[in-house]
UniProtKB/TrEMBL annotation:
<dbReference type="InterPro" id="IPR043129">
    <property type="entry name" value="ATPase_NBD"/>
</dbReference>
<dbReference type="InterPro" id="IPR000600">
    <property type="entry name" value="ROK"/>
</dbReference>
<dbReference type="Pfam" id="PF00480">
    <property type="entry name" value="ROK"/>
</dbReference>
<keyword id="KW-1133">Transmembrane helix</keyword>
<comment type="similarity">
    <text>Belongs to the ROK (NagC/XylR) family.</text>
</comment>
<dbReference type="InterPro" id="IPR036390">
    <property type="entry name" value="WH_DNA-bd_sf"/>
</dbReference>
<dbReference type="InterPro" id="IPR036388">
    <property type="entry name" value="WH-like_DNA-bd_sf"/>
</dbReference>
<dbReference type="InterPro" id="IPR011991">
    <property type="entry name" value="ArsR-like_HTH"/>
</dbReference>
<dbReference type="InterPro" id="IPR049874">
    <property type="entry name" value="ROK_cs"/>
</dbReference>
<keyword id="KW-0812">Transmembrane</keyword>
<feature type="transmembrane region" description="Helical">
    <location>
        <begin position="321"/>
        <end position="348"/>
    </location>
</feature>
<protein>
    <submittedName>
        <fullName>ROK family transcriptional regulator</fullName>
    </submittedName>
</protein>
<keyword id="KW-0472">Membrane</keyword>
Length: 396
C-alpha cells in the first residue's frame, strides 16, 4: 500500500499547492512567488516531473527576452473525497486542482457499521473507475460523523456510530485503492472546505458550526485546523446546557445535541404534532407518518408559532454555547452549516442575537455570523483539500 507522499521537501510541497490554487505558471513566476533560487527550483521541477505530478505545458507569455516554460499539474491526477454523514454518503472525484470530475450521493445509515458502509464506498469508487473518471487515485480524504484519531486514521468511541470504534478506516481504504488516505471528523472537513472555497476563504481564525444529526465545531486558529491533543476538539454537542435535560447518545444528560440535534428536533416536533400544539406539523405527520427538520422549516415559513418557537429555542441554546467560545477564542468569523442550517434565517438570527448579547463587546464588534456558502458540498470539498495536502506533502 502506497501511504507515503512522493513529494520531497517543503519547496516541492509549496510548489504543488501553488499550482493547485492558481493553475499553470511559468518557471519565472514560480521562482518569483516561491522566492527560491532558480537552480533549486529547476531541480525540484525536474524531480516532480519524474514523479508524474506535474508536466510542462508549453511556452509562457513573453516577459521580454527568452520565453519561460509553463508548468501545470498533471491533468490525470485524481483525488477521492468522501463525506459520511449519520444518514448519507457523498463521494466526489476531483482533479489535481480540486475541480469536480464526478459526484454521487445516497442515503445511508452510519449505524449499519463500517464494513457495510465502506463496502458501499468501495462500490461507488469502483463504479467511477469503470466509467472512466479515473485510472488510479492519488489520495483519498474521508470524513466521519464522530471523534477521530487523526494520527491513527480511526474513529474513537463515536456516540452515533456503533461498531466503528478503532476500525482501521485508513488502512482498509488505502489497501483497496493503493493510495494514501486521510481520515478526519465531518465537521473538520466541512470547516476546511468552507475556508478553502466558501464564505470563509482564507479566514485564519474561524469557527465552523455544524448543526445536523449531531452538533460539532470546526476550529481554525492562525490558519491551521485545531484538533486538540487526541483529535476531539470542537465536540461542543456534548457540552451540558440543561442538567435536567434528556439523556444524550453519549450517555450524559442535557447535552446541547440532545436538546437540538436532528433527532432532538424530530422528537420535539413529533410531540408538538401529536399534542395539536402545531397544526402545520400535525398535518404533515398525518400525511407522511413522520415529521422532519424540513417540515419545521416549512411550518415556520408559514407562520406556525410552534415551529418558530422550536427553531428559536434551539438557536438560543446553540448561541449560548457559541458565546462562550467567542469570548474564549475570539474568532474573526462564525459559519453555520450542516443539515439544520436549512432552518434558515430564524435560526441564524437567534444565534446571532445570543452571541452578540452574551459575548464580550470587543470580540463581537466585527464578528460576522453567516450561513455556509458551500452548503452540503462543504464536506466533500474539505475532504478533497485534505487528500491533496496529503499527496502534495503537507498533511493538515
Amino acid at each position: 500500500m502506497n501511504t507515503v507522499s512522493a513529494v520531497d521537501g517543503p519547496v516541492q510541497s509549496r510548489l504543488l499547492r501553488l499550482l493547485r490554487d492558481t493553475g499553470a505558471l511559468s518557471r519565472a513566476e514560480l521562482a518569483d512567488r516561491l522566492e527560491v533560487p532558480r537552480p533549486r527550483l529547476l531541480a525540484d521541477l525536474d524531480a516532480l516531473v519524474a514523479t508524474g505530478l506535474i508536466r510542462e505545458a508549453g511556452p509562457a507569455a513573453s516577459r521580454g527576452g527568452r520565453r519561460s516554460t509553463l508548468v501545470e499539474l498533471n491533468p490525470d491526477l485524481r483525488f477521492a473525497a468522501v463525506d459520511l454523514g449519520a444518514s448519507s454518503i457523498d463521494v466526489e472525484i476531483t482533479d489535481g486542482r480540486l475541480e469536480p470530475v464526478t459526484a454521487y450521493g445516497e442515503p445511508a445509515d452510519i449505524r449499519s457499521g463500517p464494513k457495510v458502509i465502506l463496502q458501499r464506498v468501495n462500490e461507488i469508487l469502483h463504479k467511477f473507475r469503470a466509467e472512466g473518471s479515473f485510472e488510479r487515485l492519488h489520495a483519498i480524504g474521508i470524513g466521519v460523523p464522530g471523534p477521530v484519531s487523526f494520527r491513527d486514521g480511526v474513529p474513537v468511541s463515536p456516540p452515533i456510530m456503533p461498531g466503528w470504534d478503532r476500525f482501521p478506516v485508513r488502512e482498509v481504504l488505502g489497501r483497496e485503492f493503493n493510495c494514501p488516505v486521510v481520515v478526519d471528523n465531518d465537521v473538520n472537513i466541512m470547516s476546511i472546505g468552507e475556508r478553502y472555497g466558501g464564505v470563509a476563504h482564507s479566514v485564519d481564525n474561524l469557527l465552523f458550526l455544524k448543526v445536523g444529526t449531531g452538533i460539532g465545531c470546526g476550529i481554525y486558529l492562525n490558519g491551521e485546523v485545531y484538533r486538540g491533543t487526541d483529535g476531539c476538539a470542537g465536540d461542543i454537542g456534548h457540552i451540558q446546557v440543561d442538567s435536567h435535560g434528556p439523556v444524550c447518545s453519549c450517555g450524559n444528560v442535557g447535552c446541547l445535541e440532545a436538546l437540538f440535534g436532528g433527532g432532538a428536533l424530530a422528537r420535539d416536533a413529533t410531540a408538538a404534532a401529536r399534542s395539536g400544539a402545531s397544526p402545520a406539523l400535525a398535518e404533515r405527520l398525518n400525511a407522511n407518518g413522520v415529521v422532519t427538520a424540513k417540515d419545521v422549516a416549512d411550518g415556520a415559513a408559514e407562520g406556525d408559532v410552534t415551529c418558530i418557537r422550536l427553531i428559536r429555542d434551539g438557536g438560543r441554546r446553540v448561541g449560548g454555547v457559541l458565546a462562550g467560545l467567542v469570548s474564549f477564542i475570539n474568532p474573526s468569523m462564525i459559519v453555520i452549516g450542516g443539515g439544520l442550517a436549512g432552518l434558515g434565517h430564524i435560526l441564524l438570527a437567534e444565534i446571532r442575537s445570543v452571541v452578540y448579547r452574551r459575548s464580550l463587546p470587543l470580540a463581537t464588534g466585527n464578528l460576522p455570523v453567516v450561513l455556509s456558502e458551500l452548503g452540503p458540498r462543504a464536506g466533500v470539498v474539505g475532504a478533497a483539500v485534505l487528500a491533496s495536502e496529503l499527496a502534495y506533502g503537507r498533511p493538515s
